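Protein in question quoted for reference:
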Amino acid sequence: MSIFDSMQINASGLSLERLKLDTISTNIANVNTTRTEDGEGPYLKKEVVFEESFKQVETSLAGQGTEKSFGVKPTEIRGNTEDLVMEYNPTHPDANEEGYVQMPNVNMADEMIDMMTTLRTYDANVTAMNASKEMLTKALQITIG
C-alpha cells in the first residue's frame, strides 16, 4: 500500500459526494417539472449508483496479484420511475382528459435529508483527508528532523 493511497480513497469519496450533491440539486430544481425537453412525461428523480473501485496489486515476487480497494466510483445516474404522482389540476396544460397531471416523483423532504447526509459524508471525507495530510507532514518532519 502506497503512502498516498488513503488520500486517493478520500478523493474518490469527495468526487462521488459532489456528484450526488449535483444530482440532488437537479432533482430539487425539477420538483414541479411536468414535461421534459423531449415531451415524454414528468421529470424522473435521478439517483447515483456507485460501487467499490478495485485495482490489481502485485503482492509477491512471483507476480501474483490481489485486488485492493481504492475508494468508490460512480457507475450510472439512473432515473427512478417509481412513485409518480397523479394530481388533480384541470387547468394545467399537461392535464389529461379527466383533469389529472402526472407530477415528478421528487419529494422535497427526502431530497433535503439526502442532501444533509451527503454533506456530512463529504465533511467526513475532508476530515479524513486532512488527517492523512497531517500524518504525512509528521512523517516528513521525523525523517528530516
Notes: The longest strand covers residues 65-80. The CA atoms of residues 39 and 79 lie 16 Å apart. Strands lie at 45-58, 65-80, 85-88, 100-103.
